[in-house]
Design goal:
A two-stranded parallel ribbon has the order 1-2. It has a two-stranded antiparallel ribbon with strand order 3-4. It is elongated. Helix 2 runs parallel beside helix 4 and helix 4 packs across helix 5. It starts with a strand and ends with a helix. The chain has 224 residues and is mainly alpha-helical. It folds into two domains: 70 residues, P-loop containing nucleotide triphosphate hydrolases (Rossmann fold, 3-Layer(aba) Sandwich), CATH 3.40.50.300; 99 residues, Helicase, Ruva Protein, domain 3, CATH 1.10.8. It is built from seven helices and four strands, in the order βαβαααααββα.
Length: 224
């Protein structure tokens, strides 16, 4: 079971006074109850995705529930190239377009940001093609009127599409409107949350194995 935007139904309890008498808290309580009822006999995996992990109720992150955190960072250069190639796999691209150069110069962009650039470039190419067709049809009418002929009887000339592919110019114009949806502050917050959660679930340096058992040692003992 996959829950996208998990924070919409799993926010920390106690702050839902304006949602119809705590309906959100009751939903989360029921989710926790159902998750506790799952055991090895029930082959069910629950996965949640969110970009606001700090709002998730701590009870949902306890062992036995959503107890494994997978932090997915922004795509690196190789990943950005793969995203561009996948997004444009069905789009005609002019030979002069260098996707490697585009991937190299879009550091910090998410997959959605790259998709927006590709879609905007495609729309610009379509708009240019339509404008070319309108201009071509206007020229045909002008020639027909000048020759005193019926425009419907004239043979269409230059039927080839003047804009058959997405060009470098289209990508350059699309990049003028490009924006990063994930700021550096957001990235630092995600990394800090990931580090804090991992530290809270591990013994770290405070666990020392000894003969005959194990000892938990806190920072106060170290100071002494």
């Amino acid at each position: 079971m996959f829950f996208d935007e998990l924070d919409s139904i799993a926010k920390s309890r106690g702050g839902s006074g304006g949602d119809g008498g705590g309906a959100g808290d009751r939903v989360l309580n029921q989710i926790l109850t159902e998750m506790d009822g799952m055991n090895a006999k029930k082959n069910v995996f629950i996965i949640g995705a969110t970009n606001r992990p700090d709002q998730i109720d701590s009870a949902l992150l306890r062992p036995g529930r959503l107890d494994q955190l997978i932090y997915i960072p922004l795509p690196d250069e190789a990943s950005r190239l793969s995203i561009l190639q996948a997004t444009l796999r069905k789009s005609p691209i002019a030979p002069g377009v260098d996707l490697n150069f585009l991937a190299k110069n879009t550091a910090g962009f998410s997959g959605a940001d790259l998709t927006e650039i590709c879609q905007r470039a495609a729309k610009l190419a379509i708009r240019a093609s339509i404008d070319a067709d309108i201009r071509k049809e206007r020229d045909r009418k002008d020639k027909a009127e000048a020759a005193g002929e019926d425009v419907s009887l004239m043979d269409e000339e230059n039927d080839e599409d003047e804009v058959p592919a997405i060009t470098v110019e289209h990508f350059e114009e699309a990049m003028q409107f490009a924006r990063r949806s994930v700021s550096d502050a957001d990235i630092r917050r995600y990394e800090m949350f990931s580090t804090t959660l991992q530290q809270s679930r591990s013994f770290g340096n405070n666990f020392k194995a000894q003969e005959g058992g194990a000892t938990f040692q806190n920072e106060a003992d170290d100071d002494e």
